[in-house]
Structure formats: C-alpha cells, structure tokens
Amino acid sequence: MAVIADPRPRRALHPLHAFLLAGTVPLFLGAVLNDIAYASSYQIQWANFASWLIAGGLVLGACVLAWAVVDLIRADRRDRRQLAYALLLLATWALGFINALVHARDAWASMPAGLVLSAIVAALAGAAAWIGFFGIRAGGGA
C-alpha cells in the first residue's frame, strides 16, 4: 500500500496569531455566560460586562482577521482551509459587531436577540479557533 504525502508542509500559526485567536474564544464565550446571567437575574451589570467582553473579542478578532487575510494574500498556493478560516473569522467579526450594536440598546431591549447572537458568535469563534489550530498547522509525517 502506497502512502501519498504532500511534500510541502503547511505553515504553523505564528505564536502571536495563535495567542490572539485563542483570546477571542473566552471573550465571546464569557459574553454568552453573562447574557445568561442577565436573563436569569435582571441585574444590569451582567449586560454591561457582556458588552465589554464583546468589545474585547472584536478588538482581538479584528487583529486575527487582518492577520488571516494577509496570510491568505501572501500564500503561494490557495488552501481551502485558509479560505474557510478567513471567511469564518469575517463572519465572526461581522456578527460580533452586530451583537455589539444589539447590546448597546437599553438593558432588557437587548434580550433575547443579544443572547442568541452571543451564542452564535461564540460558536463561530470556536469553529474558527478549531480550524486555525488544527486545520492550518505545520504537517509532518503521517
């Protein structure tokens, strides 16, 4: 049985890129948890904290998105995973921005749309991190 391997290994994520990518997931996940706490307790501070977590996730997400687009442009060969990664980051950032606008509304007016958007954005951030760490890494042998 013959084993066919790609002689060109894929590049690993730069450590700073990986750090920024890993930072988006807990920020967006924290926003979901704060929205759940707000929905069950009606304490306005949970909604405020969720807004700050979303803003932090957007800042890190913008840096990661810019880095992914530059990597996509500079790539010598186009990889579907790189394109999917960049598009997933773009969707995460765009929906995260919409989520920030929804959370900017007056307290309870952000519910339940804010909670649903936070959950979607957290899932997208998790999927982007999964592709980033396990789909675009330097491949060796088997």
Helix and strand layout, with pairings?
Blueprint: H1 15-41, H2 44-74, H3 80-103, H4 113-134
Transmembrane segments: 12-29, 49-70, 82-102, 114-136
InterPro entries: DUF2231_TM
Protein name: DUF2231 domain-containing protein
Care to describe what's here?
32% of the residues are buried. The protein starts with 14 loop residues before the first helix and ends in an 8-residue tail after the last helix. The chain is elongated and about 60 Å long. It has one domain. By secondary structure, the protein is an all-alpha fold. The chain has helices spanning 15-41, 44-74, 80-103, 113-134. Pfam families: DUF2231. This is DUF2231 domain-containing protein. The chain crosses the membrane at residues 12-29, 49-70, 82-102, 114-136. Keywords: Membrane, Transmembrane, Transmembrane helix.
**Largest β sheet strand count, sense and barrel closure:** none
Q: Provide the residue-averaged pLDDT.
A: 89
Question: Number of helical runs?
Answer: 4
Measure the end-to-end span: 14 Å
Number of domains: 1
| Strand-pairing-aware structural class | mainly alpha
> What low-confidence regions span 5 or more consecutive residues with pLDDT below 50?
138-142
Helix content: over 70%
Question: Secondary-structure element sequence?
Answer: HHHH
- Say how many strands there are: 0
Determine Rg (CA atoms, Å): 18 Å
Shape: elongated
**Share in β-strands:** under 5%
Concise overview:
Pfam families: DUF2231. With 142 residues, this protein is mainly alpha-helical.
